[in-house]
Design a protein that fits this description.
The protein is an alpha/beta fold. It has one domain: Aldolase class I (TIM Barrel, Alpha-Beta Barrel). Helix content is 36%, strand content 29%. It has ten helices and twelve strands. The chain has an eight-stranded parallel barrel with strand order 1-4-5-6-7-10-11-12, surrounded by seven helices. Strand 11, helix 8 and strand 12 form a beta-alpha-beta unit.
């Protein structure tokens, strides 16, 4: 079995890391470069930067943030938020990103997935899916979880994989920031539907939650933000817990 990855996420607004609940009520969580430096030393496997309020005017600020974070890392760095074209992706890569994450733009123009996969390789293209349970399916939302798309998360994940995505970053809007545990049914449904790695996001609060999403949720990686940002849980302790539970993880 391949090692499971632990990923830290930096949600960035105006050059600062923020965190909220259910994609709302954002609060300041620190400097991106300082947090990146700490995570790199603690043994996090990968880092994701998401510009939660990306606009054209703020693109230069984001590029500076990415470059500052990249200088602190010796692990893969993915960047998302506002990437809507080949040029946007190129700017992120030039600033130091190893991967680019597409969300709203991929829904609006799925051919962008294929275009970037051909240019950088599928391993460099992540499709982020934000979804919540609605009646009888996991419904996909875009624009920071504010706009319904009418699409089903499982079907969209399949299409993204077919179009060349190398990974799916699956975030539960219902679970985001609640620390009540990952959305196991949604993660398992998507993980079983695609042949590419699925990163589970939204709801991490305890070590047991990570173990659950790797077993019941069938995730290949688990992403968290606030539980790491505020030093409530050490990455090394989390990996010790997972290893004792028989879950393979990368160790320093």
């Amino acid at each position: 079995m391949l090692s499971k990855r632990i990923i830290a996420c930096l949600d960035v607004r105006d050059g600062q890391v923020v965190k909220g609940v259910n994609f709302e009520a954002l609060r300041n969580a620190g400097d991106p470069a300082e947090l990146a430096r700490r995570y790199n030393l603690e043994g996090i496997d990968e880092l994701v930067i998401l510009d939660v309020t990306a606009t054209l005017e703020k693109r230069r600020t984001m590029a500076r943030t990415v470059a500052a974070v990249a200088r602190e890392l010796f692990i893969p760095l993915a960047v998302g938020g506002g990437i809507a074209s080949d040029a946007d992706a190129a700017a992120a890569v030039e600033a130091g990103a190893d991967k680019v994450s597409l969300n709203s733009a991929a829904v609006a123009d799925p051919t962008l997935i294929t275009s970037l996969a051909r240019r950088y390789g599928s391993q460099a293209v992540v499709v982020a899916i934000d979804a919540r349970w609605e009646v009888d399916r996991f419904a996909v939302y875009v624009r920071s979880g504010s706009t319904p798309t009418g699409r089903d998360a499982v079907e969209w994940a399949r299409e993204a994989a077919d179009r060349g995505a190398g990974e799916i970053l699956l975030t539960s809007i219902d679970k985001d920031g609640t620390r009540s545990g990952f959305d196991l049914p949604m993660t398992a449904a998507v993980s079983q539907a695609v042949g590419i790695p699925v990163i589970a996001s939204g709801g991490a609060g305890t070590f047991a939650h990570f173990a659950d999403v790797f077993t019941e949720g069938r995730a290949d990686a688990a992403l968290a933000a606030s539980v790491f940002h505020f030093s409530e849980h050490a990455v090394s302790d989390l990996k010790d817990h997972l290893a004792k539970a028989g879950i393979p993880v990368r160790r320093l």
